[in-house]
Amino acid sequence: MASSDVARQPDKGVRPLSLAGHVGFDSLPDQLVNKSICQGFCFNILCIGETGIGKSTLMDTLFNTNFENFESSHFEPQVKLRAQTYDLQESNVRLRLTVVNTVGFGDQMNKQESYQPVVDYIDRQFESYLQEELKIKRSLHNYHDSRVHACLYFISPSGHSLKSLDLVTMKKLDSKVNIIPVIAKADTISKSELHKFKIKIMSELVSNGVQIYQFPLDDETVAKVNTTMNGHLPFAVVGSTEEVSVGNKMVKARQYPWGVVQVENENHCDFVKLREMLICVNMEDLRERCKLEEMGFKDTDPECKPVSLQQTYEAKRQEFLVELQKREDEMRQMFVQRVKEKEAELKEAERELQSRFEQLKRLHADEKAALEEKKRLLEEDQSSFSKRRAAAQLLQAQSLTANGKKDKDRKNSGFM
Ligand SMILES: Nc1nc2c(ncn2[C@@H]2O[C@H](COP(=O)(O)OP(=O)(O)OP(=O)(O)O)[C@@H](O)[C@H]2O)c(=O)[nH]1
Ligand SMILES: [Mg+2]
Q1: Contact, 148 vs 159, CB < 8 A?
Q2: What are the beta bridge partners of residue 97?
Q3: CA dist., res. 154 & res. 159, Å (int)
Q4: C-alpha–C-alpha distance, residues 81 and 111, integer Å
Q5: Which of 174, 282, 173, 182 is nearest to 227 (CA)?
Q6: Diameter of the chain by CA atoms?
Q7: Taking the CB of the first residue and of the last residue of the chain, which one, N or C, has fewer CB atoms within 10 A?
Q8: Ligand 1 neighbour 53 (Cβ under 6 A)
C-alpha cells in the first residue's frame, strides 16, 4: 500500500469531520516553505578523485558558475582536504554550498596516505555535529553543518577496471557518506567501451561489498525516476563551461577536431542525469539522510534484540559523555603535567640565573680587591714621592743658603 494512502486512512476511533468554513491550517505547507526559504539551505559535496581528473570543471558546470579553482601539483606529500563555502541564490532560494576537494589524491605511493585524510575529515565533521547535537543548549538552527551530504567519487575513464585505491577508499567511506560514483571525462571513452566499463564497475563494487548511494524509492513521487536512474549508475560525465554554437544556439560543450561533445545532451553523456538526481530530485534526501551507522546507531543490540532509537540515542549520549569526561580528565592531567614541567623549567632557569649572579658577584669582588690593591700601591708611591720631593726641596734650600754665605765672604775679603 502506498504511503500516502496510509496517511489518508483514518485511525480507529478517530472520526472524520467536515469543516463549515475556512480555518487556516491549509497554510501549513506554505508556512513550511516560507520558513525554509527564510532559513536558506546548506549542502556539502565532497569530490574525491585524482589530480586533474576534472573535479573543478564538473562543479563549475553543475552549478553554472566559476568557483575559485586551484590547480594541484602531482607532488603533494600527503592528501589535503580543501573546503570552500559559497553563498548561492537561485530565484529567492539561498544555498550555502561547500565544495570539498581532495588535493593530491592518488599521488602517494602508500594508498593509506591517500584515503586516511579523507576518512579523518569526514569523521571530524560528524564529531563536531554530534557535539552540537548533544549539547544541552543546542543551536543547530544557526550551526553550520559541515557534514558531507554527497560524495562524488571520480573514476578514471580507463575502460579497464577500478583501481585498488578506488575500491579501498569507497569501502572505507561507504558507511560514512552517500557515495555517487561518476566516470570522469567520459568523452575520452567510446560508447561500447563505456557500456562495458559501467557493468564492470558495478560488478566490482558488488563483489567487494561497496555500498554506493541508491536514489531512494520510498517517496512515490520520485520512485519511478529514481529506479531508472539507479540503473544508469555510475554516471558517465563530461564537464565544460565553454559555450559552443550548435545549430542556432549556444551550448556547453567540448570541441574537438572531429566534433563537439555536448555536456547537456543525454546522447553524449550522463551529465544531465547527474544534475537532475543530485540537485533537482534528491538533494533534500541527501541532506536529510542521516548516516546513523556513522554515529553507532543500530536496529538491534549485540544479542540481536531490537532496540529503540531513543535507547540507542541515550546509550550513545552516555557513551559520549563518558568519553568527554575521559578527555577532560586527560586534558586536566596533561595540564598539571605541563605546569609541573614549566615549573621545573623555571626553577632550572632561576638556578642558572642565581649561579650566574654569584659568579658575577665573585668577579666583581675580585676586581674590587685588585683595584683597592692598586690604589694602595699608588698611595704608597704618592707618599714616597712627596717625601722625596720634600727632601729635595730641603736640600735645594740648604744649598741656596750655603751659596749666599760664600758670596758674602768673598765680597768682604775683596774690600780688605
Ligand atoms: N576531455 C575532458 N577533459 C576535461 C573534462 N573535465 C575537465 N577536463 C580537463 O581536465 C583538466 C583538469 O580539469 P580540472 O577540472 O581542473 O581537474 P581537477 O580534478 O579539478 O584538478 P585538480 O584540482 O588540479 O586536482 C582541464 O584541462 C580540463 O579542461 C572532461 O569532462 N573531459
Ligand atoms: Mg580542481
Answers
A1: no
A2: 43, 86
A3: 13
A4: 16
A5: 282
A6: 180
A7: C
A8: yes
Q: Which domain holds residue 191?
A: 36-297
Q: Count of domains in the chain?
A: 2
Proportion of the chain above pLDDT 90, given as a percent: 60
CATH code where residue 206 lies: 3.40.50.300
Instruction: Report d(CA 170, CA 72) in Å as an integer.
Output: 22
> How many of the other CB atoms lie within 10 Å of CB of 197?
23
Q: Does ligand 1 lie within 6 Å of residue 188's CB atom? A: yes
Ligand 1 atom with least separation from CA of 240: 6
- The ligand 1 atom nearest the CA atom of 49: 19
What is the tens place of the pLDDT at every residue in 271-280?
999 999 999 9
What is the model's pLDDT at position 307? 62
**For residue 142, pLDDT beyond 80:** no
Spacing, Cα 278 to ligand 2 middle (Å): 20
Q: How far is the CA of 52 from the centre of ligand 1 (A)?
A: 5
Which of 246, 267, 297 lies at the terminal end of a domain, its last residue?
A: 297
Instruction: Record the pTM.
Output: 0.71
Burial group, residue 359, by CB count within 10 angstroms (0-12, 13-18, 19+)? exposed
Ligand 1 neighbourhood includes 180 CB (under 6 angstroms): no
Contact 197, 163 (CB under 8 A): no
Which among 173, 189, 190 is positioned nearest to 181, based on CA atoms? 173
Are 83 and 177 in a shared domain?
Answer: yes
195 and 168 part of one domain:
yes
Q: Give the residue whose CA is nearest to atom 3 of ligand 1.
A: 185
C-alpha cell belonging to residue 339: 605546569
Amino acid identity, position 168: V
Co-location of 171 and 254 in the same domain: yes
Domain membership flag for residue 10? no
Query: In this structure, which ligand is nearest to the CA of 54?
Result: 1
Q: Which of 45, 47, 57, 118 to mutate to test the pocket of ligand 1 (most atoms within 8 A of CB)?
A: 57
Query: Does residue 352 form part of some domain?
Result: yes
Residue owning the nearest CA to atom 25 of ligand 1: 51
Distance 18 CA to ligand 2 centre (A): 59
Q: Which of 297, 318, 339 is the last residue of a domain?
A: 297
Closest-approaching ligand to the CA atom of 107: 1
Give the ligand with the smallest distance to the CA of 48.
Answer: 1
Q: Is 126 exposed, middle or buried (0-12, 13-18, 19+ CB in 10 A)?
A: buried
Which ligand 1 atom sits closest to the C-alpha of 102? 25
